Amino acid sequence: MEQNIYKPIQCEVIDVFEESPTIKTIRLKPLEPFSFLAGQFISFTVPGIGEAPFTPSSSPFEKNYMEVTVMKTGKVTAAIHQIKKADIVGIRGPYGKPYPMEKFADKNILLVGGGVGLAPLRALFYALIETLDNYKSIVFCLGARSPVDFIFKKEVFETWLSESWLSSYKKISFRITADKKDETWKYNEGVVTKILDNLPFVPENAVVCGPPVMMKFTTLKLLDVGYKPEEIYLSMERKMYCAIGQCRHCLLGDKFVCKDGPVFTYEEIKNQPKIWA
Ligand SMILES: Cc1cc2nc3c(=O)[nH]c(=O)nc-3n(C[C@H](O)[C@H](O)[C@H](O)COP(=O)(O)OP(=O)(O)OC[C@H]3O[C@@H](n4cnc5c(N)ncnc54)[C@H](O)[C@@H]3O)c2cc1C
Predict the structure, then answer these.
(1) Ligand 1 lined by 116 (C-beta under 6 Å)
(2) Which of 3, 54, 98, 204 could form a cystine bridge with 39, CB 3.0-4.6 A?
(3) Ligand 1: does its nearest atom lie under 6 Å from the Cβ of 77?
(4) 36 close to ligand 1 (CB < 6 Angstrom)
(5) Ligand 1 pocket test: which of 239, 247, 263, 275 has the largest number of ligand atoms within 8 Å of its C-beta?
């Protein structure tokens, strides 16, 4: 009998974390063996509603669960925000090309994320930590529109920025900003491109994920400070249905985001039309 490639595997929702007024992280326990590499995506099914693509935000090395961090924008994401512990949902995948970890070997790595774009970077960050001996150093730049919109707050502020964590991971440093601060905010104010000056290393590898306008200006800034187009890795998003190169909704010029990406170097896509649309 022919295998149904669209059939999702079932997952139990084991926790739900509210990240911001519009973003939630859903922790899932796949009921069949499932694994992914940082940067790949899954198609998430809410039974009776529909499906949508997301890049897992948890560590690819975590074998007990997988997390997706979802911003509410429309029908499926609104249904995902209604999900409760013990619900059963579906996933299929993983799809697409992951971040090329082998290219980062012996290099300094810059991660730049904004808003829900921090989701795939969190998975990548955990994967880099697992193999930290392979890299020279990591600077992780995290941004959000406002302190309230900043995601993974507990992890970033209470764990990663704690003295004990930083002293155990001396190769890693963080730069944090909010477009507009409030009285609680102790970090930078301004868009994420403002925290990209005076990097402590030569430009070698940069990984960027965020809303299109943020990716555009971050890419221009990185080119300006000396990164080459083939050293800038972008996670691209397009509306998609099948996730396997059939429906053609995700075409970016002549490239499929679902199977040629979602991770592309700027060099690969810079001449395609409307890449920041
Ligand atoms: C490879 C990939 C990975 C993604 N990872 C994440 C993630 O980790 N977290 C997350 O919150 N979102 C992620 N997205 C975006 C997410 O898939 C969309 O927000 C979701 O499909 C919207 O579905 P919906 O039914 O709620 O919205 P719809 O009702 O379909 O649309 C609502 C609005 O959002 C726009 N829209 C829908 N899908 C997309 C899209 N893919 N890109 C841009 N605009 C879109 C529509 O044009 C419309 O304006 C990813 C997308 C891709 C392609």
Answers:
(1) yes
(2) 98
(3) yes
(4) no
(5) 239
pTM of the model: 0.94
Residue 244, domain member (yes or no): no
Residue 75 Cβ inside 6 Å of ligand 1? The answer reads yes
Burial of residue 11 (number of CB atoms within 10 Å: 0-12, 13-18, 19+): buried
Of the listed ranges 121-130, 184-193, 230-239, the one predicted with least confidence:
230-239
| Distance from Cα 62 to the centre of ligand 1, integer Å | 25
Lowest mean pLDDT among 1-5, 14-18, 246-250: 1-5
Q: How does DSSP classify residue 260?
A: T
What is the domain extent for residue 151? 101-235
Query: Into how many domains does the chain fold?
Result: 2
Cα dihedral 246/248/253/256 (nearest 10): -40
Instruction: Give yes or no: residues 33 and 157 share one domain.
Output: no
Kindly state the percentage of the chain with pLDDT values over 70. 98
Ligand 1 centroid – CA 239 distance (Å): 6
Chain-centre distance for alpha carbon 181 = 23
pLDDT in tens, 41-60: 999 999 999 999 999 999 99
Give the up-direction half-sphere exposure of residue 125: CA atoms within 13 A in the CB hemisphere.
28
Q: Give residue 273's pLDDT band: very low, low, confident or very high (50, 70, 90).
A: confident
User: Is the CB–ligand 1 distance for residue 55 below 6 Å?
Assistant: yes
8 A C-beta contact, residue 25 and residue 72: no
**50 and 16 in a common domain:** yes
